[in-house]
Amino acid sequence: MKYIATVNEQEIEIEVGQDREITVNGERYDIDFHQLPDGGLVSLLLNNLSYEAVVEAREDVWDVLLRGELYSVTVQDERAYRLAKARGADTTVHGEAVIKSPMPGIIIAAPAAEGSYVHKGDKIIILESMKMENELRSPRDGIVTRVQVKPGDGVEKGQVLAVISDGAAKD
Questions:
Q1: Which residues is 105 bridged to in the sheet?
Q2: Rounded Cα gap, residues 6 and 3, in angstroms
Q3: 2-87 matches 97-165 in fold
Q4: Which CATH architecture has domain 97-165?
Q5: Cβ(74)–Cβ(60) under 8 Å?
Q6: Residue 163 has pLDDT above 80, yes or no
């Protein structure tokens, strides 16, 4: 079956094959995937390269923390994707975007101040967890309306760290 994954506005075509293989944008990969018992942690072997990621579902988006980078991923089967495109579905984030901690850790920095205008992809929070620094980025353009942590704070998985709301850039 074919799926369309959208990662940071880039569309990726994925076809799930048999015998642990997938095709991504026409390129074949051998895959071995396991969900570990440690809340949201997954192990992935992709062409014999090992990856660990934290994956969390929220509404119709998957948050994937991989190698210190947080990605927002939507996945649709091919029919649903084509139907949404035909209807002109808007996939832009509207309203408040809440940035939550994908795992327990310590806040290293909070580069975005309350009231500042940020662009999609700007660093909002830097979280240290599992001896790695993880950059949590803005999923949209907008105004940082709340930053609920400061450097040195310990946080739990799912804790709200910052909120970004609709707003125009200030001149």
A1: 155
A2: 10
A3: no
A4: Beta Barrel (2.40)
A5: yes
A6: yes
